[in-house]
Design brief:
mainly alpha
Length: 324
């Protein structure tokens, strides 16, 4: 069960922390160099600890059934196989109807598929699912395995579609701490491993470090936004069309399919809320790496993140109201 008041409260809390990061950057407490180190800390340490703590915190009586886990794998794989087709058709439609820049086709397709399921999705699910939070975060961690595999296989090729960028698949990216920790979490789940009482402090330490992830991640987003000129962020009307399509129309249209394929209520809520997240920061990372339009990627991330504070609870509520 998703607690709507907690969901909204968590979004507001994350936005406040985002604003804190923004002002810390403006006061030069945070800067580009510090942001790189914070990003490395989140990706390599705190997020893996949060993922591991999620599965270690699952009570034996609340462990997901094998059939539910199998369904999670099937839905995750299906999502990253079907969404490229949907995104291709939608962006081609935008190209004809709204005359988007051809060189941005790949970026639009990439950002239609890959949402901020890690830095924002996991903290929000953790807060909004109450007693079921460990299981919800575990589901999200498994989904993130397929997210990362898709990003660093067809994602790096897709984002340069329509541009002359030399994008290519990099196998070493699949060995990221996020993927490895999620795989390790799956192993812990399958073996039902738990630290003995004498080593409970290790378990607590992992949890304490993992708790740092939401605040650090949102301060990082706010600090990144502070490096942009606000008046330049809102000057491209096509981004708003994309944002409405991605975060309002498409989720509402696809929710019945989610209901049909996912009978488990918690898993349904987890997968749908992950779908409602704004554009992932990895879009900016790849645009930087392959010398694509970084300014454009930053604008889309900023606008969709801002809109998500309203669209996530509103769309989630409307879908449950309309299709209940």
């Amino acid at each position: 069960m998703i607690h709507m008041n907690v969901l909204v409260s968590q979004l507001i809390e994350l936005f406040i922390i985002l604003c804190l990061g923004y002002f810390m950057c403006k006061r030069n407490i945070l800067n580009e160099d510090v942001n790189k180190h914070i990003n490395a800390l989140i990706v390599n340490i705190t997020m893996p600890c949060m993922i591991l703590n999620a599965v270690l915190s699952i009570d034996s009586s609340a462990r997901p059934e094998a059939s539910t886990l199998g369904l999670l794998f099937a839905v995750s794989i299906g999502f990253f196989l079907i969404m490229p087709v949907i995104s291709f058709l939608l962006v081609k439609g935008m190209l004809k109807a709204f005359h988007i820049v051809k060189a941005r086709q790949g970026a639009y397709m990439f950002m239609m598929i890959f949402s901020n399921v890690g830095f924002m999705g996991i903290p929000i699910l953790r807060a909004a699912t109450g007693d079921q939070a460990p299981v919800a975060v575990f589901y999200a961690a498994i989904f993130n395995i397929f997210f990362n595999i898709a990003v660093f296989t067809y994602g790096v090729i897709m984002i340069g579609y329509g541009d002359s960028a030399n994008t290519k698949f990099q196998f070493k990216k699949l060995l990221s701490p996020g993927i490895l920790s999620a795989l390790f979490a799956l192993l812990i789940y399958l073996t039902q491993f738990h630290f003995p009482p004498a080593l409970e402090s290790v378990d607590h330490a992992i949890g304490t470090v993992g708790e740092l992830t939401p605040a650090l991640a949102m301060m990082l987003v706010g600090s990144t936004l502070a490096t942009m000129k606000i008046r330049d962020v809102f000057n491209e009307w096509r981004i708003y069309i994309f944002a409405v399509l991605k975060q309002i129309l498409l989720p509402i249209l696809l929710y019945p399919l989610y209901q049909l394929l996912i009978p488990d209520k918690l898993l349904l809520n987890v997968m749908f809320i992950e779908f409602l997240m704004p554009v992932a920061n990895v879009a900016l990372i790849l645009c930087t790496q392959y010398n694509l339009d970084k300014k454009f990627a930053s604008k889309v991330i900023f606008i969709t993140t801002l809109m998500s504070l309203v669209t996530i609870p509103v769309v989630f509520y409307l879908c449950n109201l309309i299709y209940s």
